[in-house]
Amino acid sequence: MDGQISPLAPTPTLLADYQPYPFDLSRTQLRFALAPTATRVIARLHLTPHGQIADLVLDGEGLKLQRIEIDGVAVTGYHLTDTVLTIPAERLPRAAFVLETEVEIAPASNTALEGLYMSNGMYCTQCEAEGFRKITFYPDRPDVMSRFDVRIEGREPVLLSNGNPVASGKDDDGRGWAEWSDPWPKPAYLFALVAGDLRHISDSFTTSEGRDVALNIYVRPGDEGRCGFAMEALIRSMEWDERVWGRAYDLDIFNIVAVDDFNMGAMENKGLNIFNSKLVLASPETATDLDYERIEAVIGHEYFHNWTGNRITCRDWFQLCLKEGLTVYRDQTFTADVRKGAVKRIDDVMTLRARQFREDQGPLSHAVRPDSYIEINNFYTATIYEKGAEIIGMLRSVIGEEAWAKGTALYFDRHDGQACTIEDWLAVFAEVSNRDLSQFKRWYTDAGTPEVSVRETWEDGRFTLTFTQSTAPTPNQPDKPARVIPIRVALFDPSAKMLGTEQVLEMDQPEQSFCFDGLAERPHPSILRGFSAPVMLRLDPTVDHRAFLFAHDTDPFNRWEAGRDLALAALAALSNGAPLAAASDYLSALGDFLADPLPAPAFRALCLQLPSDDEIAKLLCTQGDLPDPDAIEGARNTLSAAIASRHETALVALYDAAEIAGTYSPDAEPTGKRALRRAILAHLTHIDKGVRAQQAFANAQNMTDQIGALGLLIAHGIGAQASAAFYEQWKGERLVMDKWFSVELAYAPKDQAVARAEELAGHPLFDWKNPNQFRALLGGLAANHAAFHRADGAGYRFYGDWLLTLDPKNPQTAARMSTAFQTWSQFDDRRRAQAQMVFAKLLGTPSLSRDLGEMVERLAKG
Ligand code: B3K
Ligand code: ZN
Known about the structure:
Blueprint: E1 13-14, E2 23-33, E3 39-49, E4 56-59, E5 64-70, E6 73-74, E7 79-80, E8 84-87, E9 97-105, E10 115-119, E11 122-126, E12 146-154, E13 158-161, E14 164-170, E15 176-186, E16 193-196, E17 199-206, E18 212-219, H1 228-245, E19 253-259, E20 266-267, E21 272-276, H2 289-304, E22 313-314, H3 320-340, H4 343-360, E23 372-373, H5 382-399, H6 401-415, E24 419-420, H7 422-433, H8 442-445, E25 451-459, E26 462-470, E27 485-492, E28 498-507, E29 511-516, E30 524-527, E31 536-538, H9 546-552, H10 556-575, H11 584-595, H12 601-608, H13 613-622, H14 629-646, H15 648-657, H16 668-684, H17 691-699, H18 703-715, H19 720-730, H20 734-746, H21 753-761, H22 771-783, H23 785-788, H24 794-806, H25 811-817, H26 829-843, H27 850-860
Parallel strand pairs: 2-12, 18-19, 19-21, 22-24, 25-31
Antiparallel strand pairs: 1-23, 2-3, 3-9, 4-8, 5-6, 5-9, 7-8, 10-11, 12-15, 13-16, 14-15, 17-18, 20-21, 25-26, 26-29, 27-28, 27-30
Helix pairs in contact: 1-2, 2-3, 3-4, 3-5, 4-5, 5-6, 6-7, 9-10, 10-11, 10-14, 12-16, 14-16, 15-16, 16-18, 17-18, 18-20, 19-20, 20-21, 20-22, 24-25, 24-26, 25-27, 26-27
Bound molecules: (3S)-3,7-diaminoheptanoic acid (B3K) and zinc ion (ZN).
(3S)-3,7-diaminoheptanoic acid binds near residues 264, 268, 305 and 324.
């Protein structure tokens, strides 16, 4: 009954209903006898009632109960449903007791990839958020923390669980066993077990506290040669967390395991992180620069959870951002520190806008701390992760560096070993900074992206910036009172000299003015530097500093933003049918930028990359225009071609200068050069008949260059040969094949993409039950804006039918992939009607899962 919708509407879980668990669970002993179709799990739970008399309620789903005893005596009179086991209070001892259950589960038939399941003959687990209840009867909630001792029995050579290894051996019949003990109390969602025929690479790390830690990365046989970079990334993460946050590792061993079938990126199980193999395995020939960067970031992210998530966890799932927002903030600053510097902020803002702003401006908008959910897995969203991280950054700039350092130290001291709330988190900062953070807290409780408008006045040497904030209503939240918005500002004189220093203006009213006196000339303001708050900035339409800032701003983010705004304005005008002259401001500002010898390649690459069709469509909606996906695609191509013809000489010179000889390195500098060449190639391919892209493909020495060129060739309708060659070269590499499926669809001409998707869905190498492959194919199509949003609805229908196919097997991934539909209501009536037909079909399917059901219900509201 995996996640099947009940005939009655599912009841939401409410934050307001939180009650502490009435038992203490000091120790959990688990014994697994592994078998693919009949694994036995014996659980001994050491429970103590908290005083009041309460029923013992345990979660459990899809478990065959074999035995249930309290202190060695069989329990009678318990009540068992599909999801809950209840032992009435009157059948429980009044003092500490041990509940022992024995259940049988079938990991081989677990296609939902939640709980204990199998991937290529290997056993593995995924328990967050509520997967442990598919393993044994248990209080499966994050505020119940317990010490775990685990014994695993199986024929697999590698048997792993959390914590430190205690003992292992082999029985006479050749069956192996291993015992693990985790000294740190943890909630069940951090439990993990892995068993399989695996290979590993090892290293070690000595912590600042003098602990020698063995580090291992386990992979399928044959993949050992591709985990070196992941190991280096782990060591960099451990060093960084000690140096920057004072957090040291706390076990004798840290294991990472790569699995091919995984619903998301990775999971921070205590001492035994489980990763999607695409976020571990890398070689220059098979992984792109972006893959390398993501591997490092995700290895860091999961490792950083050891403190922000594991040592201090969440009281309930409404507090998910407590660990996720903070840990994303930590991984973003880690990447900026060790790899990318200032361009990382631009990447992060692009992601935030593409994913979170999009979510916040559509039917799925929700608060960073929501107060109700039906399926918690549907709330692992960009809002909780990325906007959650933005809030941390704002908090830091609002309270200042000193209070930030004191507050974080106090948080770790005070709450180590606890399951906490957002209130606990904010309280430490309120205390150390002596500030009332109740208005700031609205960032957690109020959904929606604030719009901040700016007006300028200049009079008698006084320059005034007047800001107005407003947030549009979001589902179930009609009123949006003013928030605290930190706005980083600098002023420049006309010769581009900064006047004074940068300041953080703190806005906390619906409208507020800030004055700057004693200025000789009207300044150029640079507002919201570093994107100091996740808001949509609307600048004074009567003054335009964008070309000035694109040429001179010393804040990389705002410099990039100025160029981006000019490009967006041009693209919006072209999409609405304006002639190319509408792009002339942008084209000449870009010329000045290209003539500046100083910018680094990575920054130049970002400035040369045009906004996505999705972003252009959103801008058109904001302006009150109806976006037409075909016109948008046309506008983007027109502008790209115009960039190429107008600036050909400068672009060719930069392209040639960024060529790299020698061996591949994933370091920031060569990565920046490759990104620049790819960005320039995207424009030049419009005017050179694809000659350079063909050369780039033929000469590519690494996956970054190869797949980059392939995408362009396909986009220009000249990729058939290259695509076939790519396929022949890589058909034996599962992770590269994911890239191929994706690129074939993301760049296919819009009128051919759906037919190609249908063809590829029947390809012998396409296994739709593998989440990476499903995501590659469906995600590839959804990334092709004009194809997915085809006016005749063919893109929507293909996509919807595949969600329906996947849903009974893997509701979590089906639900997540449904977010491709979140912008449906911004298009014309014909497209809207097509999307609504898909929703009606999905909602009319009686067996639709709770996961996908909740998503489609919300999406359909538009
Ligand atoms: N905490 C996990 C995500 C679990 C998702 C469950 N549907 C990975 C992470 O954010 O680090
Ligand atoms: Zn996380």
